[in-house]
C-alpha cells in the first residue's frame, strides 16, 4: 500500500543568548525523514554549518610599541586576545580599519574599539590588554572578511595603515616585459651594450678586488686585537637584542558557528496519537526526526546560518544533476536496454510458472468451492464431476448430452471465471448449434 508523503516540519524548541560571550544557542527539530536518512542529512547539514564563514575577524594590528613596557601582556598574548573578538557586520564582503586610542592606566576591552558604521562587537567585555600608567596606546586594527584579499586587488595584511590597491600579476608582467622587451632585436641590442660596458668595467673591477683584499686583511688583524682585549676584560657579552615589533599578525577565526550537534529521534512528544502511529507503521518503517543544537559566535543568527547552509548544500548537490545525461551514452543505453529486456523476459517466465502452478492447484479444488446451486451441484456429482478439472476437461457436447441446459452452463462459467478458469463458453454461441451426441 502506498503511504502518503508527509510534509516537512520545522519546530523551534529553544533559543538562549549568553550576555558575557555573546554566543547564541539555538535548538530546533526537523523532519520527518525516511528510515536511516536522518543521519545522512544531519551529517551533511552539520558539516556545512561548521564550514560557514559569514563573519569578520581581525587580521593584524599596528601600534606604537617602541616605548617599551607600555602594556603588561606580550605580543603573543595580545594577538590571542584580539583573535577572540567577534565582530558582526550587516554587509559582505568588507575590509576596513578599527582604532583603539587610550591613555594609561587603563584596562582595554573590546568595547573600546572604534568601528565603522554597520559594525558591532558581539562580545564587548572581551579583555585585550592592560595599559600601564604614563603610557598611551594608539592601535590600528585591520578587519576583513574571508572573501577579500584573494583577488587582483592586493592589500598588505602586515601593515593595515598602508592599504594600497595594486595588482601583483600585472606588475609582475610589466617587469618581465621591461626586461625582455616586446621586440627580440631590441633585446639583443641591449645584450650587446651590456657586454661592451662589462668589458670596459673589467679593469675597474680588478682594482676594486685588490682594494677589498687589503681591507679584509686589515679587518682581520683588528678583530684579533679586539678579541684578545675582550678576553682580558671583565665585561660580559650578551646576545644581540631584537627591537620591539610595531606590527602584530593575528590568526583570524572565520568560522561563524562555535559548535553544532544533532541526534536522531523517532517521536518527539508523548502523545497517544504518535504512539498509535508508531505501532501501526512498525519500528522499521517509522520516519525519523532530527534534533539540532547550533551555537553561533554571535555574529550571525543560527536561523540565518541554517538557511545559508541549506542553500549551500543545495548548490553543492546540483553537480549531480548532469550524471544521468553523462551516463546516457549509446553504449550505456544499449546495455540498459539489454538488461531491462533480460529482466522482463525473466519476469515473464516467472509469471508463467506461477500462473501454471496456480492453475494446477485450482484444478484440484473440490466442486463445492464454486458455490453452485444445490440441485446443480448434486446433479454434477451424480454424473461423476468431483473437481474443477472434470468440468474444464469435458467438451460442451457432453455437458449438453447429460442434460444440462443453457442457464446451468452460464452459472458454471460464471463461477469458474472467479478462479480464472473457463469452460470456453462463447457468448455468441447458439445453444441449438451444439450437437446432442459426440462424433464417433
TrEMBL record:
Which residues does the UniProt record annotate as the domain DNA-directed RNA polymerase RpoA/D/Rpb3-type? Answer: 35-316
One GO biological process from the UniProt record? DNA-templated transcription
Q: Name one GO molecular function term.
A: protein dimerization activity
In terms of Pfam families, this protein maps to:
RNA_pol_L
Q: Which organism is it from?
A: Nannochloropsis granulata
Keywords, in A-Z order: Chloroplast, DNA-directed RNA polymerase, Plastid, Transcription
Which cellular component appears as one GO term in the record? DNA-directed RNA polymerase complex
| Cited InterPro entries | DNA-dir_RNA_pol_RpoA/D/Rpb3 (IPR011263), RBP11-like (IPR036603), RNApol_insert_sf (IPR036643)
- Matching Gene3D superfamilies: DNA-directed RNA polymerase, insert domain, RNA polymerase, RBP11-like subunit
Q: What is this protein called?
A: RNA polymerase alpha subunit
Coiled coil feature spans = none
Amino acid at each position: 500500500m502506498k503511504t502518503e508523503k508527509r510534509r516537512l516540519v520545522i519546530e523551534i524548541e529553544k533559543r538562549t543568548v549568553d550576555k558575557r560571550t555573546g554566543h547564541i544557542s539555538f535548538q530546533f527539530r526537523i523532519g520527518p525523514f525516511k528510515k536511516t536518512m536522518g543521519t545522512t542529512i544531519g551529517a551533511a547539514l552539520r558539516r556545512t554549518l561548521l564550514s560557514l564563514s559569514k563573519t569578520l575577524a581581525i587580521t593584524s594590528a599596528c601600534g606604537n610599541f617602541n616605548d617599551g613596557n607600555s602594556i603588561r601582556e606580550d605580543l603573543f598574548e595580545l594577538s590571542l586576545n584580539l583573535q577572540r573578538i567577534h565582530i558582526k557586520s550587516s554587509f559582505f564582503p568588507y575590509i576596513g580599519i578599527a582604532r583603539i586610542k587610550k591613555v594609561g592606566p587603563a584596562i582595554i576591552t573590546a568595547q573600546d574599539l572604534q568601528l565603522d558604521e554597520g559594525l558591532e562587537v558581539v562580545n564587548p567585555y572581551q579583555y585585550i590588554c592592560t595599559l600601564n600608567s604614563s603610557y598611551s596606546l594608539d592601535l590600528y586594527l585591520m578587519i576583513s572578511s574571508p572573501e577579500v584579499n584573494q583577488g587582483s586587488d592586493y592589500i598588505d595584511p602586515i601593515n593595515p595603515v598602508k592599504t594600497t590597491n595594486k595588482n601583483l600579476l600585472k606588475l609582475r608582467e610589466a617587469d618581465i616585459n621591461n626586461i625582455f622587451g616586446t621586440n627580440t632585436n631590441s633585446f639583443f641590442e641591449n645584450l650587446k651594450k651590456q657586454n661592451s660596458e662589462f668589458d670596459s668595467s673589467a679593469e675597474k673591477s680588478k682594482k676594486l678586488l685588490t682594494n677589498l683584499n687589503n681591507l679584509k686583511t686589515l679587518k682581520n688583524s683588528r678583530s684579533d686585537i679586539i678579541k684578545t682585549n675582550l678576553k682580558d676584560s671583565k665585561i660580559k657579552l650578551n646576545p644581540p637584542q631584537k627591537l620591539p615589533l610595531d606590527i602584530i599578525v593575528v590568526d583570524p577565526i572565520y568560522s561563524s558557528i562555535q559548535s553544532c550537534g544533532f541526534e536522531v529521534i523517532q517521536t518527539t512528544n508523548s502523545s497517544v496519537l504518535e504512539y498509535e502511529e508508531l505501532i501501526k507503521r512498525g519500528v522499521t518503517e517509522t520516519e525519523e526526526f532530527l534534533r539540532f543544537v547550533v551555537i553561533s559566535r554571535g555574529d550571525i543568527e543560527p536561523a540565518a546560518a541554517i538557511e545559508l547552509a541549506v542553500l549551500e548544500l543545495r548548490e553543492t548537490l546540483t553537480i549531480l544533476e548532469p550524471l544521468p545525461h553523462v551516463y546516457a551514452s549509446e553504449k550505456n543505453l544499449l546495455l540498459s536496454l539489454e538488461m531491462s529486456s533480460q529482466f522482463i523476459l525473466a519476469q515473464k517466465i516467472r509469471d508463467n510458472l506461477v500462473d501454471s502452478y496456480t492453475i494446477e492447484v485450482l484444478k484440484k479444488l473440490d466442486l463445492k468451492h464454486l458455490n453452485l446451486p444445490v440441485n446443480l451441484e448434486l446433479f454434477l456429482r451424480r454424473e461423476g464431476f468431483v473437481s474443477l478439472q472434470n468440468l474444464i476437461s469435458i467438451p460442451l457436447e457432453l455437458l449438453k448430452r447429460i442434460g444440462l441446459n443453457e442457464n446451468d452452463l452460464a452459472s458454471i462459467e460464471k463461477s469458474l471465471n472467479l478462479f480464472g478458469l473457463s469452460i470456453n463458453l462463447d457468448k455468441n454461441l447458439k445453444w441449438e448449434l451444439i450437437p446432442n451426441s459426440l462424433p464417433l
